[in-house]
Amino acid sequence: MPYTAILFDLDNTLYDYTAYWRARLMWSLAAVQAAYPALDLGQIAQHAIARHIYAADFDAYLAACGVADATVRAQAVARYRVNWYDQLELFAGAAELLERLHRCYRLGLITNGPAHSQRPKIACFGLEQWMQCCIISSEVGVAKPDPRIFGLALQQLGVSPQQAVYVGDSLEFDLRGASAAGIDFVWLNRQATPLPPDGPAPHAIISELTQLTQVSGIRCAVSAQLP
User: Fold this and answer.
1) Closest Cα partner for 152 from 115, 119, 108, 218?
2) Pairing status of strand 133-136 against strand 5-8
3) What confidence tens digit (pLDDT) does each residue in 199-217 have?
4) Euclidean distance between CA atoms 62 and 120, whole angstroms
5) pTM
6) Full strand arrangement of the beta sheet holding 133-136
7) CA dihedral 28, 51, 207, 17 (to 10 degrees)
8) Each residue of 62-83: pLDDT tens digit?
């Protein structure tokens, strides 16, 4: 059965979430760098990302890292909060790809995370001009890899699992969830990470999002209409 719908993950699939987050953290830590030059800011940023330290927990995290001066911490937190979404950019070629695909397929988004962070990203990227559904885990009460969140997207798009393919970067959340829902999975593997031998296999592996149109079962003529 040919695909009639393509579903996407958001973070690290449509844009480089990790690189952007690290750059924002390093920018936010300018006052810390000046006051505590011996601290390894790269390691602080790396651990903040690994532990999912957001603005609400940033002050306590910095204190635990050895930033004793409350004024310095306050400066870092203020920078961390300001204009967080202003410099977000989709991967190169992603907007053109979505513009092309939405003429041929029903498109949808499934992302884990709180709405207060994911909705601004969706708005910043203008994703709703291409996506017929944008599902955020905190809004529906279920998160990847639970197959129910994939089922919600299928229901909104009006397609069966066999008619859909899901594109994402995470084997733990995206591949496991799509596989449990009976949906083919395309793995965006930008780091050339080896595929574990003990899990489900993706339908295809790509290193760049723009390679999606080369995947078996995904064809899109510019003049095509929605099926």
Assistant:
1) 108
2) unpaired
3) 899 999 999 999 999 999 9
4) 26
5) 0.89
6) 133-136, 106-111, 5-8, 164-168, 184-188, 204-206
7) -30
8) 999 999 999 999 999 999 988 7
